[in-house]
Amino acid sequence: xxxxxxxxxxxVLILLGGVCGFSCPLGxxxxxxxxxxxxxxxxxxxxxxxxxxxxxxxxxxQNNVGFxxxxxxxxxxxxxEITEVCHLDVYPVQCECKSQTKVDCNHKGLAAIPLNLxxxxxxxLLKENNISKLEDYAFADLTQLYLLHLEDNGITELTxxxxxxxxSLVKL
Length: 172
Fold this sequence. Notes:
This protein is mainly β. The chain has helices spanning 58-61, 68-71, and strands at 6-8, 10-14, 19-23, 28-30, 36-39, 96-98, 102-104, 123-125, 133-134, 147-149, 157-158.
């Protein structure tokens, strides 16, 4: 199945300052300095969609230096800190443990947040599953979690305390 992933963005002229700029529609990612956009769900999905590869760069996808620094300028993950060895004692059997404390549950057909997640999980990827509702305190035990991907789940309901306890979360 071939998906149309790439399209031309919009050039914007700001009349007051005479500045010409480029922007992508809400929910889309700019392919670096190109005037092309892709849907955000295709960022860091393991498939290069931007002609220049901007959607799959190490800085954006592995250590979150890209958008991560937009929110937390003083934190850096050094390249030598990233390994493919799992350092978690438990993780859901249907998921994969990658890069020390990262749990990848993307594309697993999950209908709910998986059980058996280690309290030491720092990155949880739950993109493109069938999760439609998130219950109160769904992630409360994951106090070390700083990155949570929930894109393309069809989530229609969030209870008031769903993200309670996620004091380390910097990217949702």
